[in-house]
Amino acid sequence: MQQLTLTTERLLLRAFESADAHQVQRLAGNADVSSTTANIPHPYPDGLAEKWISTHGENFANQSRVTYAICLKENGELIGCISLIHLSSEHPELGYWLGVEHWGRGYCTEACREMIKFCIERFSLKAIYGKHLSRNPASGHVMEKCGLTYIGSDTGKDGFMLVPEEFRIYRMLCE
Ligand SMILES: CC(C)(COP(=O)(O)OP(=O)(O)OC[C@H]1O[C@@H](n2cnc3c(N)ncnc32)[C@H](O)[C@@H]1OP(=O)(O)O)[C@@H](O)C(=O)NCCC(=O)NCCS
Fold this sequence. Notes:
binds coenzyme A, 8 strands, single chain, alpha+beta
């Protein structure tokens, strides 16, 4: 099963390739990106991006998660990542990050809207969830702009972060 490329006004969402590893390490390895995400280490070790990318094909094939590289349409530059994890569960969950130099231009919202549309159609989802650390309101703003609604807060006890910290939970009902 092939992972189709998606397009928006300014972006291409495509499957990651092994050649993207260096750019992933550079962008995701920024402390300002890793400090607000659940599973991106800092410093970002050599070889991790290659290993991560190598899991995408199987994850898509068995419908456990779908991961897209966010690229600029105008020049193909890889600027970030968007994924939907726990796809086959009752709680499919959005995740995303963008390289710091690309923040604040609406790119994440644009990617997220397309990703949600694609996943609802392709995987017949009943609901989509999202979480962000309470100290990271930009992420919650993205979710709200994409149609998710705040449903409550919790702490890191579900493993969202290694250090317990308050996070906010959002949901979109799809049926
Ligand atoms: C979260 C992240 C993906 C947002 O990407 P982005 O492309 O800058 O997001 P957008 O421009 O589409 O939207 C961000 C919105 O949040 C708003 N915002 C930014 N900082 C904010 C803040 N401190 N408080 C409230 N809103 C804020 C922006 O104004 C924008 O809203 P607007 O379009 O109405 O003006 C990016 O900051 C990032 O990669 N952060 C590090 C990784 C991360 O946090 N991932 C999410 C983990 S849950």
